[in-house]
């Protein structure tokens, strides 16, 4: 009997400890509490920064248009210029960019900043119009787990983990949801090591980041307009190009410009597009919020060396069904010139201004 009592006591103690862990987990990691104090310069912190930027720049009483994208939108869209371009329309443009992000991340970010799916006059998604434009397997982007660590919930266990192709990443995704403290252990250790330092860093970031974002006018550097040899599909000369840029252009840009994904990668990316675009569309179906797809200028020589983008697969089907609308693939192709880029994929000040004005006018026309 004594042994049974000890075993019963031990079982109750384990149950109590588990309950405490679950309660602590729910209060800290499954709420927005810890999101507030993430290291601003971390991968997860970039998600936190996007949440803060959106919340700080939404304009109550106006028709807010949220533009989701990666660093191409971060560099390429001036919300102030977009507002000025559409002055009198009641529209207000809000940037939801996260560097290195794509549809899977945006779905969960939208859930965080727009829980009722009725906060915006429109959602603009800056994506390639064809899933086969990406040479990498989008479903296997392991960084997505870190980006989303502060936003995932127990209810996401099956959906999020199963969206990865490999068993190893599925298991890693499940662990990030079941044990968020483990996924964020380095960030937590740094926070506990110096809470005051983290507090000051977060406070300074909040004070400066939005103001710096709103005042940013773009990068003034422009790539040289190198002539392309039609036989080699490489520049005839490299005059005016430093060694670092030359290496990036030869090893990455020009190889990627004419490459196509393998059939397996193309099939995986099509599944990815179909799943996450459909999920976003379904979130906003009840509120009737328009979803608008755009293809951001792709690179400095795409305008002359690559075909005009055209919708395919799930994108084309959703457009045909009226579930989404899209700006024509050639809307921004004339901007795809070296003079409008400061590196291999990001628009400079000139490209930013052209892109922003055209985007704002086209979106305003769709939302008349």
Please specify the SSE layout and strand pairing.
Layout: H1 2-28, H2 43-57, E1 63-68, H3 71-76, H4 79-85, E2 91-95, H5 103-113, E3 122-126, H6 143-148, H7 157-162, H8 167-178, H9 180-183, H10 185-193, H11 195-215, E4 228-229, E5 234-235, H12 243-257, H13 263-285, E6 291-294, H14 302-305, H15 313-320, E7 325-326, H16 349-366
Parallel strand pairs: 1-2, 1-3, 3-6, 6-7
Antiparallel strand pairs: 4-5
Helix pairs in contact: 4-16, 5-13, 10-11, 13-15
Summarize the structure in short.
The protein has 368 residues and is α/β, with parallel strands linked by helices. It has helices spanning 2-28, 43-57, 71-76, 79-85, 103-113, 143-148, 157-162, 167-178, 180-183, 185-193, 195-215, 243-257, 263-285, 302-305, 313-320, 349-366; strands spanning 63-68, 91-95, 122-126, 228-229, 234-235, 291-294, 325-326. 52% of the residues lie in helices and 7% in strands.
